[in-house]
Design a protein that fits this description.
Elements lengths: L1 H16 L2 H14 L5 H13 L11 H21 L1
Helix pairs in contact: 1-2, 1-3, 3-4
Length: 84
């Protein structure tokens, strides 16, 4: 449990600073290692809230949430195929 909290803190700090090149590898490993790592979707929502959600962007304003949800679903399906 402490490793998951430390991971969440690192992802949160990286998102606040806009460092996706740091947040994404940590999040990919976390999605694979932790069950139900929904913090990744929360990170996408936070990113969109800070740097997106501009009405002129349309769907591109929600790209962080969309990508994080797609990665979470894909990793869940991949885990089922590989681990079963």
């Amino acid at each position: 449990m402490p490793i998951r909290i430390i991971t969440d803190i690192f992802i949160f700090i990286a998102i606040l600073h806009g460092w996706w090149f740091v947040a994404l590898p940590i999040a990919f490993l976390s999605v694979w290692n932790f069950p139900y790592f929904l913090e990744f979707v929360l990170a996408g929502i936070i990113y969109d809230s800070l740097f997106g959600l501009i009405p002129e962007l349309g769907i591109l304003g929600y790209v962080g949430t969309i990508i994080s949800t797609m990665i979470l679903i894909a990793s869940g399906l991949l885990k089922k195929v590989i681990r079963d």
